[in-house]
Amino acid sequence: MTVVGTFEKAWMFNYFCSSTISPIEYAVMDNLGYGQINTFDMSVNSVTLDLIDELIIYNASLEYFIHNSYIIYKAVDRDDNLLVLDLETCIMRDINTVNDYCGAYCFHDTLTGYSYGLGKDLNQEKKTIQLEKTYV
């Protein structure tokens, strides 16, 4: 992908796009019936959501440090979920090492076939999906 614009705008574009991948990945995989392993109760989650759980639910503290040209975010005394920000490109990466799980293809083989089949079925049957509004 090529981003055209000022350095600052390209940098921010990279950040906003890459930092949303972890929550989007969770939403897609969870809704297709496939999930990832989180570090607490082995349910479906993502690195970003695990860190939010640690912060809010488990009252953990988050820390960050700079190593070379990266900022690394993690929970204090935990090395299983990391968010890594590349300061040169401003691309955010997520790393989950729970149970030696160090990444997987999100849309590989079965998941790709299931996603394609679901989309095809919805299109052929002209089913509608109704979203409910919730007002607070």
Task: Report what the structure shows.
By secondary structure, this protein is an alpha+beta fold. The chain has one domain (7-103). Helix content is 37%, strand content 17%. It has four helices and four strands; from the N terminus they run H-H-H-E-E-E-E-H. The chain has helices at residues 7-19, 21-31, 47-56, 110-125, and strands at residues 62-67, 70-75, 81-86, 92-96. A four-stranded antiparallel β-sheet has the order 1-2-3-4. Strand 1 (62-67) and strand 2 (70-75) form a beta hairpin.
What labels would you give this structure?
136 residues; alpha+beta; 17% strand; 4-stranded antiparallel sheet; flat
Helix run count: 4
Order of helices and strands: HHHEEEEH
Beta strand %: 15-25%
The main sheet comes to:
4 strands, antiparallel
In oligomeric terms, what are we looking at? Answer: single chain
Number of domains: 1
**Spatial sequence of strands, sheet with the most strands:** 1-2-3-4
Distance between the termini: 39 Å
Q: Which structural class should the secondary elements be placed in? A: alpha+beta
**Principal-axes shape call:** flat
Q: Helicity level, as a percent range?
A: 25-40%
Radius of gyration based on Cα positions: 18 Å
Average pLDDT, rounded to a whole number, is 75
The low-confidence parts are: none
Number of strands: 4
